[in-house]
Structures are given as C-alpha cells and as structure tokens.
C-alpha cells in the first residue's frame, strides 16, 4: 500500500511553486548564551510575561528568559516571510500564522 501524506494529497509536495512543511534541522535553533553579545529590551503583554516566567521556572537551571527569547528568534529566522510586504502588526501576525504549523499534544 502506498502511503500518501496530507501535503501530497493537497498538492503541497512536488507541486511547482508551492511550499512544503519540513522538520527543522539541528542547525536551526542553536544560538548559545556564549554566542550572544547583544541585549534587547522588548515590551510584553501580561500573558506573554506570565508564560515566559512559567517556562523558565519549569525548565532546567540553564534556561532563563534570555535563552527562551534566543530560541524563539532562531525559530523566527527560519520562517518564510516576505518581510518587505509587512507594513503593520496585523500583517506580521498573519504572516507568522501562515508560516507556522505547530504540533499539539494528543488529548484523551
């Protein structure tokens, strides 16, 4: 029996000009603390700040907020976004949603 992925069933695999979803390779999210030489300040919503605090508390001792932000920036660098057409926060959020698929835990 030939196995067909949902991407090929929808024409996403090997169709000219279309994108495909792939796993990130080992080199995709790799910036280490010692590679970091710049600091930034960002404004966060309460829910974002709460989430960042929670994940750093739940993670191991080598994980702090900066490590999480570095990983998320590395991830953002992998997104296929047409940056020159981004003119607003709404367009940015939409482009990110269009560029990302997430794996959810099975429920039940």
Short description:
By secondary structure, this protein is an all-alpha fold. It has 4 helices and no strands.
Layout of secondary structure:
Blueprint: H1 6-9, H2 46-58, H3 65-77, H4 89-99
List keywords for this structure.
4 helices, 38% helix, mainly alpha, 0% strand, globular, 108 residues
Describe this structure as you would to a colleague.
By secondary structure, the protein is an all-alpha fold. Helix content is 38%, strand content 0%. It has four helices and no strands. The protein has helices at 6-9, 46-58, 65-77, 89-99.
Average pLDDT: 85
Instruction: Tell me roughly what share of residues is in helical segments.
Output: 25-40%
Order of helices and strands: HHHH
Give the strand tally: 0
Taking the sheet with the most strands, its summary is: none
Radius of gyration: 18 Å
User: Structural class, judged by helices and strands?
Assistant: mainly alpha
Low-confidence runs (pLDDT<50, min 5 residues)? Answer: none
Beta strand %: under 5%
Number of helices: 4
Shape: globular
Distance, first to last CA:
29 Å
